[in-house]
Structure formats: C-alpha cells, structure tokens
TrEMBL record:
The gene is mfd. Residues 672-833 form the Helicase ATP-binding domain. It comes from Parascardovia denticolens DSM 10105 = JCM 12538. It holds the Pfam family CarD_TRCF_RID. Signal peptide: none annotated. The lineage of its organism: Bacteria, Bacillati, Actinomycetota, Actinomycetes, Bifidobacteriales. Residues 1-22 are annotated as: Disordered. Residues 851-1008 form the Helicase C-terminal domain. This is Transcription-repair-coupling factor. Couples transcription and DNA repair by recognizing RNA polymerase (RNAP) stalled at DNA lesions. Mediates ATP-dependent release of RNAP and its truncated transcript from the DNA, and recruitment of nucleotide excision repair machinery to the damaged site. One of its GO terms (cellular component) is cytoplasm. GO terms for molecular function: ATP binding; damaged DNA binding; DNA helicase activity; hydrolase activity. One of its GO terms (biological process) is regulation of DNA-templated transcription. HAMAP family: TRCF. In the C-terminal section; belongs to the helicase family. RecG subfamily. Its main location: cytoplasm.
Length: 1206
C-alpha cells in the first residue's frame, strides 16, 4: 500500500464524528402514518373489498400487510420459502404490535411421496402455527392469536391431515403435577424418539426422575427435574457435553415433530398393513410400535382417513394477498409436475414387480390445483388481492395502484444512489436508509454523509426491499437497493450442536480394541461378576441373623468387566480371554484404523515391538515440533497495532451471526498478531464453518498497518472463490486485491507482480505460483495458507522457511483430533471451529437400487429449482458412457465430465464452468471429495455406492447442502449384483445418520487419522495402523510432554482388583454405552478436581449418585495413589493381597512383618504377598466394601512409612 493511501486510511478510520446516529430499534412503523397520505394505500388498509388487482412493488408490500394487520387478519401467499422468510422479517420491521403476531407456515423440504421426512423444526413450527390459527389464546405468549401469516405457495397447495390443528403440544411448567410415564407416552404420540442421550431435535430421554427433551422449536435441549410427580425445575443444557447451564425456565412446550399422530388408531392400521406395501414393512412395523421413522409421511394416504386444505384453517375475515400471481402459478405447476414424476419413480422402484405402479392410491397426498385453491379463497374471503409488480390501470374496475415505485435505477450504483438521495431531500422527501447488519449500515452512513447530504434517517431493520412514494413523500432505501446485494440479518438463531465433547464409543460384539499393555484384541461383551466370596460357614450363622448391622454376607458384591479375546497361544487352541475391570478403561480404546488388524497373543513379544517402533518415530516428531517452536520464539517479528474503527466496521458488516468458536478464534489470531513473535496458527474446521471470514479479518488487520498479505491456495478454483469473497468483503475500503492464476492473462499477472514490488497491491491470492522466487513483496506481513497438506514437499520447505519471520495463518478443512490438539498445545498454536453454521440443514439421504426413472426425477427436481447435480461414478474406464446415458435420459441438461486422468488445465476449465453454472450435471469420480465448495449444487447421486468406504460416502455427502436450499444425496447400488455384508452395513449407517450423528463420529475418526498425518507428516500412517489411532495420539502427547518437562518419569499402568462393589448400577444408568462413558471418565481422572467435576456432571445428568458409585470413585482414588507410588498390581487373591511394584526398604519390610504376621516378599518379581482380613475369621465379620478400601488405604500408608520424625 502506498503511503498516501495509508495516510488517507488512518485519517478516515479516525474521523467519523459528524455522521447522523443509527437507530437500533429495528422498527419502521413510525413511517406508516405518512404512507396513509397515499389515498390508494389508505383505502386498501381501511376496507379494500371489491378490489382484486393491486399495483404494489415488492418494497411496500410488508408495510401494506403490517398496516392492514392492525385491524384484521392477513394471509400473504408468496412464491417460495426464502421469500416467506424475507417477508416475515420485513413485516415485523413495519408492524407496531408484538413481533410474535407475525409468523409463517414453512413448507416441507421434501415431496409428499418421498421416503424422506421434513425437518423436525419445520414440522414443529407448522404445528404451532396450525394450533394458534385454530385455538388462539388471548394474552398467551405461546398460543396468542396470529395477526399476519405468510404462506409459501408450496404450503398452501399441500393438504394436511384432518384434525392436525387439534394435536396438543405437551406443556411442561414448574410446579405442575404430571405423571412422568404419561408425559413420555404423550411425547411418543407427538413423534418424539426415545434415546439414551438427547443430541438432536425431537429426542427425549428418561432417567429416574429426570426427563431430557429437545423440542424442535427450542434453541437448546432442556432438563426437567421431577420431585415425585411435581416439576421441580426446567433448565437448558448443552447437547455437546450434556451439562445444564444458565437460568431455569418457567415453562417449555413440545409441539409434535411429525404430521402423523402416532396414536393407537394409526399404530393398529400400520400393523394391519404389514406385508401389503412393497419395501415398507420395516417402516410399518416401527410405526405400529410407536417409533417415528424416516419417510413415514409418504405413508399418510395409507394410514390416515382424511386430509384437508391448509386454507380451511384461515380466519374467514382475513384479507388474502397473493404476491406475483404468475410466479405463484408457475411455482405450483412445477411442484405438481415434479411431485408426480417423483411418485411414479419412487413407487416404481418400490413396487417389486417393476412397473406394477403404486400399491395404494396416493391421490390423497397430491398437491391441490392452485387455480381451484385461488377460486375457493375468493369465494370464502371478503377481500382477495393479487399484488402485482407490473403496470396496473387504476381506472379499471376492481383495480388499485399504490403511488410507490421501486428504486431500481440506483441498484448497485452507490454514487448514483447518493446523488438520488440528495435530489429526494431537496424535493422535501423523508429518506430512510436501512440494512440488517450494523457494519454495513455504518459504511453506508459514512459514504452518504461524506457527500454532504443531511437529514437522512439510518435504521437497522430487516426490510429487504425499498420504494419511493410520491404521494407520501417518503423514500425507503435498503442495502439491496444501494449496493445490489443484501446481507443476511445477524439474528442469533438456534445454535447447532458442536462436535461432541462426550466421546461415546459404542462397543459392539466383535469390535477391535487396543489395550495399552496387551495389544489388539476383540471385544466380546460386558459382564457383571461377583467379587466377594460368600463366607457364612465359619460363623455358623443364618444369613438373616445380621439384620441391619452391616452387609448381609450372602449379598454378593458385583463388578463390571470388559471381556476381550486375544489370539490363541497355540495353534488349534481356543482364543485367550482377558477380563478388564471397568475402572481401568483408560487402558482400553476402540481400534481405529483403515485396515482390519491382526489379533495379538497375550504375553507375546510382537505387541511390545510394534509399540517400541511407533514410540521411536513419535519421539522424532516431537523433537522436530519443539525445535521449530524454539526457533520461532527466538525471532523478532512485527507486532501489529490494536483494532482500528475501520476494523470494527468491517466486522460489523459480516452478514451472518458469528459462532462462539469463530469469535474465540478471531480473538486468538489477533492476540498472536499483536505479539512481537511471528504467528504460526492452524485453524481447523469443515468447509463452510467460517475459516475464510477469520482470514478476511486477519488480512484486513495486517493491511491497516500497511503490510502486504499473500493468500496461498492449492487450486485455481479456490483462488477464484477466495478472490470473490475478499473483494466483496473489502468493498468500500481502499484495499487493492489481486489474483494470480491461469485464468489471468500474462499481462495481468505481470501487472500484479509489479504491484507487489512497489506496494500498490495490498493482498494477492494465488496458487503455488506465488512461491516463485522471482516474486518480490515490498513489505510482506502475513501469509495465509489454505489446505497446506495439499502442497508438494518442495513448496512445504519454502513455507517452513517463511514461518520463522512473517506471521503465518494456516487453514485446514480436515479435522484434527481434540486429543492431539491438547498434545501440541503451546508448540503449535491451534484453533478448532466445531460449530456448524446456522442454516446448514442435514442432507436428506436416500439409499436404494439404481433405476433410471429415479435418477431422472432427482436430476429434474434439482434443475427445476435452478440447482446443479453431482453424479459420482468412480470408474474412469466407462465414465464417458455413463455421461452419454445421462444426456439421453435428461436431454435438456448440460452435462460435464471430470476425472483425475484429465490434464490439470482441462480439469480446471470444467470445474470453472460448473462453478459458473454453465454445467448442470457434473459426472465425475471422487475428485469432488475435497475442497469444492459449490453452494448451488444440492443433489448428489452416487452410482455403485456399495463400492465406497464410509468416510468417503460422508465426504461426498458433505459436498452438497452448503447453500440455503435443502440438499439430497442418493446412494444407489446395482440390484443385479450381490452386495457384501460390510457394504450393506455401511449403506445402512449412512442412511441412518443424516444429521451429524454417530456415523459422523466414525467418519470423523477416519478423517482425524488423515488430519494427524497432515499435522505430523504423512509417513505416520503405518505406525498409526500398528497401534491404533487413540493410543498413537496418546504417545505423541507423552513424547511432547517429555521434551517440555525433561524430569518427567514414565507413568505405570496399575491394576486394582479388590472385593468391592465398585460399579454403576444399571438402575442408575441403564444404557451400556452411557455406563462405559462414565467408567472411561472415572478411569482417566487425574485428581480430586476431576473426580468432583465428574460427580457434579453425573448429579446434573442422572440425579444423586448411589453408594456403589461412591465406591467406584474411592477405588479410582486408590488406584491413582498406587500409580503414583509405582505399584502395578494391587490384587486380592483368596485371603491375601498381592502388591507388585517398588521394592520396600529394609525398615519398612521389618515393620510390615510385625503388623502382617505372614507377609512374604519376592525380590525377583518385586512382589509382596500380604494376609488380609477381607473374608473375616471365626470371631470377626467379613469386611464390607468401605472397610476393604479403608484397610487397603492404611496398607499404602504402611508401604510409604518413613519412620517417626524426631
């Protein structure tokens, strides 16, 4: 950046004092009285009967609806769901009453006959609106009457189950008496799913007197604590760690999650239909048991007697406004056509006798004819207006025209808009400028005020379009009118679930596990075994004679064990089995690796050799990491200045709500930049989780200090995407952004290189070409590297050299495991973005046999909404044949082809065309698996999906669903070819986990292995396979700690096995999976603070812990103490206890022999055999669990005896 430019920047950034203030209340209602100056507006608001066609531009419609809605109900029909959302926000900005009086009936994202369900929150919002329309309760904050309802045409023409409006939501209120099992029955009827752990909307879990529930309309799940039958408290909790937080709530309501009531009548009908509908038996059986299943809505015609039109719920006094009749009619026709195609395709596939047609009549669910709906509404409502943006002749009968016109001549031209505002003010117009994001409004205010225009009203609101009204002498200009685009309102919407802090490892029979000492085995089962022998014989007493004085000796103490099978020690022998007490679960992890491992033999040497090799390699890595870190610490870097007012303005103009992770990461990056040591930070997060915005802000901060920024990307497409993002975000600021790639001419690239040398280019985006030694920067301050792992070795070396003297920010879409992140803390700064962005919807996933009709219907449906399709076929040999076949099936579609055997240039051009929407269907190999971010491609079809791995399927599915639209993924297999069991399991896993659920965790692990390789070097994969991923990461962590604390001694593995009932009773936590999670946490606890934390969490999640759990904590404390003393075994054997570990001093041994008469010491094996009183004797009772632990604790005191102090 040149010095003059820098000076201007500093001056402008500092002085903005004179501009008028921004009104933050978000309301435009104060302008409504002025609009009544337009007689046509006033007549419509006051009556409007007899009017059928109204000339009203888009911008004034929300004002018309808001003003009319003050006197009578309004229903506004709009072409799409996005229009409906925009309209609701705009109307609320104009409306004088409670914003909750305005709502919309969202449309399903699925078609009526698809075997895919609409989202639970969509259904819940629909159900709440239906209930409020039919049963309004005056003065209620939950069920108050609706004044204005916005309806997308799709919702208007889709019939609903008759009586749906009478399905009562379940309301929970503090102090209310409610039978817990009845509440659970009501939730099941409202289609909630009973789960072990509440993670997703529409789930509930019952544990003793605690009910966890996630109502689809609530921002967080809630924990309802019952005291007997009375609700004691309602508290929100985080799905990620299951801990409650914040203030309690007075009440929560749980609307239905599905539009079929799962009542007895529906269940009986489902049971009766089993066997009569092809491919639907699984669904029908689940429904008959009251379990909601994916796609059950497609069976509405078979399960429900009658349906009704949505408009039968509208208030008969309501004014009906149809927005843009032609668009509505076209949208309704397209929908009906697509739905019919889909019905034919999906039931053609489902009916086993190909072409047999639908097995039952589906007419009931069909979309209604739009013209008939329109006619019915005209007959039943006093005022029905068609609002048109086209010219309307007000003198014709039944026609009216508002004086407002759209400010189209300014759109996208800020200087024209500014001079237009000046002219309007001179003519005496009131002018208001509005935007949804505060930073954008600040920028517009600065631009407009700098030209000397005064008296303009700046308001923060959700109005999306403006108008100029000659009669009312009023002009409203929105961000879209002035800049040509609009930001999304920064509303704090429902936070999505973060990546789980609870690592639930579901162990199934046959899963491979790794034991740190014994190696790789196979999980068999979890068993409860008695640990205390019955010993009533000595006393000669009947078991009942002890009464309440202590434990009945016939009460056996139980403990839970994991049974693991190892390779047999001799050929032909049965496998060896190992019983591992659950308090030692920190030694065990699920084996995660790409290949199936070989089982180790118990006591064999192969495991210790594998471990030694891996450990050696890990030490080298840790050493490299520490060296690089030390070199950076010694270098003097540039300390950037604190944020300027412009920085704040740029950040406030961000069109979305930042996620909490984003805010934390941005703060961390800025803090690093302001230090005099060069920054080296890695940011991990999936595509679309907000990494680019962090880069935008960091780069801007560097440019504010007159430094240059280089953004390095692996592909030309990414360069193009980043270039558009950076240019868009820096609009209105004096920042020069350039791009260097093959899509620029040689002359353009030469000019950019010149600009970098003389400082006139502030930021350059390019591929590895930027690393060319010929390219010189005037003053490079920050390098941003996107997807560093995709650069070659020689490029990485260049980057390594850069790291020691400029600030480096690396971005990666491959996740890095938490454990590893903790391991390298303080050596490589790292930030993780775990929270998905707000509007990211789960991808609707269909798994089924390949059929041409299904493929045609899926492609046409996507093309109808203006979208694009990925068709993945992973065999290069016949990919052109497949592309030609699709061209025959869908001749109107533009087909492109991409695969790895193409030249780089040709591939770039194809991807470039696809991104610019010149290709409708891209037939490609898994080349699309990573890095592509094309938000308009929202249908994925995978041919022969049975040939892909689980994480590949997840990665592919992640390519779609990046935009606002609902995305679809079709995983198809060849019905003529037999499928392996593994392939079948993979496809069923992917079908079940449409959200970020358990299957996501499996894929996450697979990706984390990749992430680990990227961070530590690719040659690690062999070692990771050898010892399993979790243990490998633990080794890295230990090695790094060793380098950081050279005095550290290696911790020993300690086994404690005493006759103590240290377990979690199934009556407290009945799910094996959740019990395992708690055992793992207790085993890994490091000290008293950890134990207290776990105890608090258990009390929060499950209620007061029972005594057996306190004993589990006591055993864990004892184990922790023994470990610190170097003891490896503390095991009860008959009447003795075996202690293996440190050799006792002579004085200690003599003392032990005095106290425990028959003690034996074996120096070769470092073993003490000490007699115990656990089983009692002729004159004493057997010890209970608490006494056993106290006795053992005293024994440890004796082992550490140092003699009396003088």
């Amino acid at each position: 950046m040149t010095d003059t430019k820098s000076a201007t920047r500093k001056a402008d950034a500092g002085g903005q004092g004179a501009a008028p203030e921004i009104k933050l209340d978000g309301s435009l209602s104060s302008f409504l009285p002025g609009l009544r100056e337009d007689p046509a507006f006033a007549d419509l608001v006051n009556d409007g009967r007899g009017v059928s066609l109204v000339g009203a531009p888009l911008g004034i419609r929300p004002a018309l609806a808001a003003a009319t809605g003050e006197g009578r109900p309004v229903v506004m029909v709009v072409p799409s769901g996005r229009d409906a959302e925009d309209m609701v926000g705009s109307i609320r900005s104009w409306y004088r009453g409670n914003p909750a009086d305005v709502d919309m009936i969202p449309a399903w994202e699925t078609l009526p006959h698809e075997r895919l369900s609409p989202r639970a929150d969509t259904v819940a919002q629909r159900m709440s609106v239906f209930h409020r329309l039919a049963h309004p309760v005056e003065g209620s904050d939950l069920f108050g009457p609706l004044k204005i309802v916005v309806v997308p045409v799709r919702s208007l023409i889709q019939p609903v189950v008759r009586g749906i409006q009478d399905m009562e939501p379940v309301v929970f209120q503090v102090g209310q008496e409610m039978d817990l099992s009845q509440a659970a029955d009501r939730l099941v009827e409202n289609a909630y799913t009973c789960a072990d752990l509440v993670m997703d909307r529409g789930e509930f879990a019952l544990r003793g007197g605690i009910l966890d529930i996630f109502p689809p309309t609530a921002p967080h799940p809630v924990r309802i604590d019952f005291f007997g039958d009375e609700i004691d408290s309602i508290k929100p909790f985080h799905a990620s760690d299951q801990r409650s937080f914040g203030q309690g709530q007075e009440r929560i309501w749980a609307p239905a999650c599905r539009e079929i009531p799962l009542n007895q009548k529906v269940r009986r009908r489902a049971a009766a239909l089993v066997g009569s509908i092809p491919n639907a038996d699984d669904m029908l059986e689940s429904i008959s048991q009251g379990i909601p299943v994916e796609g059950m809505e497609s069976l509405i015609p078979a399960l429900i007697d009658d349906v009704m039109p949505v408009y039968s719920l509208f208030d008969p006094r309501a004014v009906i406004m149809f927005c843009d009749m032609e668009r509505l009619r076209r949208g309704a026709d397209d929908l009906t056509k697509t739905a019919n195609e889909f019905l034919a395709a999906s039931w053609h596939v489902a009916a086993s006798g190909h072409g047999a047609g639908a097995p039952i009549s589906f007419d009931k669910s069909n979309f209604l004819d739009f013209s008939e709906v329109h006619r019915s509404l005209e007959l039943t409502h006093p005022a029905t207006w068609d609002l048109s943006s086209l010219g309307v002749d007000p003198s014709a009968d039944g026609h009216a025209r508002l004086a407002a016109v759209p400010p189209d001549e300014y759109r996208g031209d800020e200087s024209k808009a500014t001079s237009g505002i000046q002219a309007l003010r001179e003519r005496g117009f009131a002018v208001a400028v509005t935007a949804a994001a505060r930073g954008t409004l600040s920028r517009l205010r600065r631009v407009i005020s700098s030209t000397g225009v005064s008296g303009v009203d700046f308001r923060l609101s959700l109005a999306s379009d403006g108008f100029i009204d000659d009669k009312a002498h009023l002009a409203l200009l929105t961000e879209r009118d002035i800049t040509g685009h609009s930001s999304v309102a920064a509303q704090a919407k429902t936070p999505k679930r973060r990546r789980k802090a609870i690592d639930l490892v579901e162990l199934k029979k046959g899963d491979f596990v790794v034991h740190e000492q014994h190696g790789i085995g196979r999980f068999v089962e979890m068993v409860r075994r008695p640990v205390r022998p019955v010993n009533t014989r000595i006393r000669g007493l009947a078991p009942s004679s002890r009464g309440a004085a202590g434990h009945d000796p016939s009460d056996q103490a139980f403990r839970e064990y994991l049974v693991i099978e190892y390779a047999p020690s001799k050929r032909g022998a049965p496998p060896d089995r190992l019983y591992i007490p659950t308090d030692q679960l920190d030694q065990v992890s699920k084996y995660i690796g790409a290949e199936e491992p070989k089982l180790n033999k118990l006591g064999g040497s192969d495991w210790s050799q594998t471990k030694a090799k891996a450990r050696k390699k890990v030490k080298e890595i840790a050493q490299d990491l520490v060296k690089l870190y030390a070199a950076r610490q010694r270098t003097q870097g540039f300390a950037f200045s604190p944020d300027t007012p412009w920085q704040r303005e740029l950040e406030e103009a961000f069109p979305y709500q930042e996620t909490p992770d984003q805010l934390t990461t941005i703060d961390e990056v800025k803090a690093d930049m302001e230090k005099p040591i060069p920054m080296d930070r890695l940011i991990c997060g999936d595509v679309g989780f907000g990494k680019t915005e962090i880069a935008v802000r960091a780069a801007f901060k560097a440019i504010q200090d007159s430094k240059q920024v280089a953004v390095l990307v692996p592909t030309t497409l990414l360069a193009q995407q980043h270039f558009e993002t950076f240019t868009d975000r820096y609009e209105g600021f004096p920042v020069t952004v350039k791009m260097m790639s093959r899509f620029q001419s040689a002359a353009e690239n030469k000019e950019t290189i010149e600009g970098l040398r003389d400082g006139s280019v502030d930021l350059v985006i390019g591929t590895h070409k930027l690393l060319n030694p010929q390219i010189k920067f005037k003053d490079l301050g920050l390098v941003i590297i996107d997807e560093e792992q995709r650069f070659g070795v020689e490029h990485k070396e260049t980057l390594k050299a850069l790291r020691t003297n400029v600030d480096v920010l690396s971005l990666s879409a491959t996740p890095i495991p938490r454990t590893l992140e903790m391991a390298v803390t303080g050596i490589r700064e790292m930030s993780t973005l775990d929270t998905p962005p707000e509007d990211r919807l789960p991808v609707l996933t269909y798994v089924g046999a390949y059929e041409d009709t299904q493929v045609v219907a899926a492609i046409r449906r996507e093309l109808l909404r203006g979208g694009q399709v990925f068709f993945v076929h992973n065999r290069v040999q016949d990919i052109s044949k497949v592309a030609a076949h699709i061209k025959d099936l869908v001749p109107e579609a533009k087909i492109g082809m991409a695969h790895g055997k193409m030249g780089e240039k040709q591939l770039d051009n194809i991807i470039h065309d696809f991104w610019h929407r010149d290709i409708d269907v891209l037939v490609c190999t898994t080349i699309v698996e990573t890095g592509l971010d094309i938000s308009n491609a929202n249908t994925l079809i995978v041919d022969r999906a049975d040939r892909f791995g689980l994480s590949q399927l997840h990665q592919l599915r992640g390519r779609v669903g990046r935009g606002w639209e609902r995305a679809y993924a079709y995983f198809l297999y060849d019905p003529a070819k037999p499928m392996t069991q593994t392939a079948h399991d993979r496809l069923s896993t992917i079908a079940q986990n449409t959200a970020l659920g358990a299957g996501y965790d499996v894929a996450m692990k697979d990706l984390e292995i990749r992430g680990t390789g990227n961070l530590l070097g690719g040659e690690q994969s062999g070692h990771i396979e050898g010892v399993g991923f979790d243990l490998y990461v633990r080794m890295v962590s230990d090695a790094v700690q060793d380098y950081k604390e050279s005095e550290r001694t290696d911790a020993v593995a300690t086994t404690v096995d005493l006759p103590v009932e240290a377990s979690i009773p199934p009556s407290y936590i009945d799910s094996d999976k959740l019990r395992l999670e708690v055992y793992r946490k207790v085993a890994a606890a490091q000290g008293e603070e950890d134990f207290q934390e776990i105890r608090d969490e258990l009390t929060d999640r499950y209620g007061k812990p029972p005594q057996a759990l306190d004993l589990l904590f006591a055993v864990a404390r004892l184990r922790s103490r023994a470990k610190a003393m170097g003891i490896t075994d503390l095991i009860a054997q008959g009447r003795n206890i075996r202690v293996v570990g440190p050799d006792p001093q002579e004085s200690v041994l003599m003392r032990l022999k005095r106290i425990y008469k028959t003690v034996q010491y074996r120096p070769v094996t470092h073993t003490l055999i000490i007699p115990t009183s656990f089983q009692g004797s002729f004159d004493s009772d057997p010890m209970d669990s608490k006494q056993v632990l106290e006795w053992t604790d005293l024994l440890l005191d004796d082992l550490t005896w140092r003699g009396k102090k003088a």
